[in-house]
Structures are given as structure tokens and as C-alpha cells.
Here is the input.
Amino acid sequence: MPKISFVVTVFNKAPFLPAVIDGLKAQTGAFDREFIFIDDGSSDSSVEIIRSETAGLENVRIVAQENHGPAIATNNAVSIATGDWIKLVDSDDVLAPYCTELLLSRALADDLDFIFGSADYYDMQTGPVFPQTDLASLETILFDDPLFTVLDRGFARVSHCLFKRQVFERAGGCDPRIFSQDHSLFIRLAALGKLGQIKHVVCLGPEDEPGRIMNNQAQVIHDASIALAYFLKDQPDLPASKRKLIAKKVLSRVRKWEKKKLGKGGLGPAGKQYVLSRLGVPVSGDVLVSLCSAFGEGSVLRIPQKTDLPELKDISHEP
Here is the structure.
């Protein structure tokens, strides 16, 4: 029987954790399971709530690290996971009861390494309500070229994903040089494994959550862009078609930011590189990484200062 490790990264999400944990408890399906909560330096009552809400739940492990951000927290938690499959869960997202069972059954049926569904939002006044659908009628979309598809479409978020732990390890996990985890995760896994998608909502997040990373536009665009830039830099043998696609996307985003947010018109560094690229001059990964610094001009960006995994402490029980 397959085993799934539910990995929940937590940073100051106390108000949302009861619903998140209720969603974990409600997961249907015939598979073994373990639950790993990693606290990334919370200053609220998140840890106490996790302990109380998981009381009586089997195979729960609560660990903590100094605050390093969700990418490094994810890598640290997965390093102690024992499941065949990893089910990431953001600590304000609620999984549909059928989420894991649906993703796992389709992944096994099509011999996939990585599968994801759709994510949406719920009204905080009414709470999460999932659509009633004949799950058996849903199509599993398979991608002939997973990496090109991910580079082109830029998928993000994590609570709608399920993937093999071994493929995650082969990929090197999430890129620890980037604060958020989702963009590099999609790219790295798509480069190694078979990818599938089900266009059906499998998780919901709160609509007006003030602490969400995606509320910081500069952080979101920076992390999405630099994930591409680092991947190009790290993959010298990447086919020319994919290198051009990455360069086009990163340059377009930075050029637009320079024009609209920084008032540089088309004469900023990315604008000049964009013109050169249109003339056929290749752009290196190092240059693209450097250009992404534009998103930090006048904006607050969180960029990991250390990429090694910090010390992991087991805090499953009261000290």
C-alpha cells in the first residue's frame, strides 16, 4: 500500500490551522499516511494549535526551524519524510476530502511522477465549500513535454500537488536560493518526471488572508522570474528552444517592471537586453539572475541569506 507524507509548512497561521487540520483528517483513500508539520519560526500560537488539533491523530510529527522561508522549510520537512509520495499543504489551504485519493489514483493509473489539480479561494465568512462533481468523469491531462509546458505556463501553488518523494530528492528539492517554493518546484520536477493535471478544484485558500505571500506583487514576480533564471543558469545543456523561452519570459517581466514601476521606459537594463535578444544575442542565466534585482528596487523582497538546511527540532510535545 502506498504511503503519503503530508507536509505542512507553518508561519503564523494560527487562525487557519483548525480548518487545515480538519481537512487533513477528512482525507479519504486507502493509503498509509504520516503528517509532518514544520514551524518556520512562528511567533503566534500556531504550534499550540497544531498540538491540540492533532491530539489523537496517528503518525504526527511536529518539528521547528529558525525562520528561513517556505522553500527551505519544505526541503527540511521532506528530508525526514518516509512516504513514497509527498502531499504539500500550505498552512492556510484546506484540502477537499477527495483531494489526495483523486490525485494518487490518477498518478498510479498513468504511472506519473507528479500530478496537480486546481486551486481556488473561499469566502472567510462562509468557509470552504467544494464542488460536487462525478470525479470518475474527470480527464487526466498528460503532457508530452512537461518541462516546456511548465516553463511556458508558469504553474504555481503547492496544495494542489502530489509527487514522488524520490523525484523530489533527485531534483534537489525546492530551490533554496528563492524564498517561495512553488515556482522552482514545478520547474525542477517537470524536468525529471511524467506530469499530469486534473482541472478540478482540490483545495481552497482564504480569499482575504493578509499574510499571504502573493499579496506582495514584487515578491511573486521576482520569485517566478528568478526561478526561471536560476534554472537556465544551472542547466548548461538545456535545449536552445527552452533557453529562448526562459530568456523571453524573464526579460519581458523585468522590462515591464522597469517601465511601469520604476519609470525607466524602454532604456533600463532589461530593456536593452530585450532588444539584443530580439537581434539573436543569447542571454546568460547570470545576466537574467542579475536583472531580477529590479523587482527589489523600492520594494521589500525576502531572499534567503543561507541555503543550508537549518537545525531541525522535534517539538511534538510540550517542553
Q: What stands out?
A: DSSP finds eleven helices and ten strands in the chain. Strands lie at 3-10, 32-39, 60-64, 85-90, 94-95, 114-122, 141-142, 161-164, 195-206, 313-314.
